[in-house]
Write a structure and sequence with these properties.
There is one protein chain. The chain is mainly alpha-helical. The protein folds into two domains: about 80 residues, no CATH class; about 45 residues, no CATH class. The chain has six helices and four strands. The strands form two sheets. It has a two-stranded antiparallel ribbon. The chain has a two-stranded antiparallel sheet with strand order 3-4.
């Protein structure tokens, strides 16, 4: 039950969330080691992600929700919950449709060709060059844009 007491100490309303975020952000910014605090947050994020997608947890929540069967929306701690379909998937490969199978095959082949062409274009010299396959002049390599961020070691993301 110690794990539940940890959860129970966390915010349980929108107002509490906003206050907690402000307090935590302020503390992290004043911290002597924001990197360490960041890694702790990433571990917490992973913890919540894992528990929220757990099949047994989902089953227990749905069973609890069904106790309120007469109500379409159930309110818990100020949050309004409802059950809804979250998507439908279709497997067209099993239909036996020759046209669909042919289109799928063409798309896969074109995707591979496009990736190969992009790889070729990335290494073009700045002044451009003549395409050895068709003799057309290619003006320049593709524009490059880079973003800076931080990354986490593999061990933190997926223990």
């Amino acid at each position: 039950m110690e794990a539940l007491s940890t959860i129970n100490s966390l915010p349980s309303s929108k107002k509490q969330v906003a206050s907690f975020v402000y307090e935590l952000k302020t503390a992290i910014l004043k911290s002597k080691n924001p990197l360490e605090e960041f890694v702790k947050l990433k571990y917490a994020e992973k913890t919540f992600e894992e528990i929220l997608k757990d099949a047994e947890i989902e089953k227990a929540v749905l069973e609890e929700f069904h106790l309120y069967e007469a109500e379409k929306i159930v309110e818990v701690l100020g949050a309004k919950l409802n059950i809804s379909e979250t998507g439908t998937k279709y497997d067209y490969g099993d239909c036996g449709d020759v046209v669909w199978n042919d289109l799928d095959k063409q798309i896969k082949e074109l995707t591979e060709k496009k990736k190969a062409r992009e790889t070729f274009l990335k290494v073009l010299p700045n002044g451009g060059m003549v395409d050895p396959d068709n003799g057309n002049f290619i003006n320049r390599p593709p524009k490059e844009s880079k973003c800076r961020s931080y990354s986490l070691p593999y061990s933190v993301r997926s223990y």
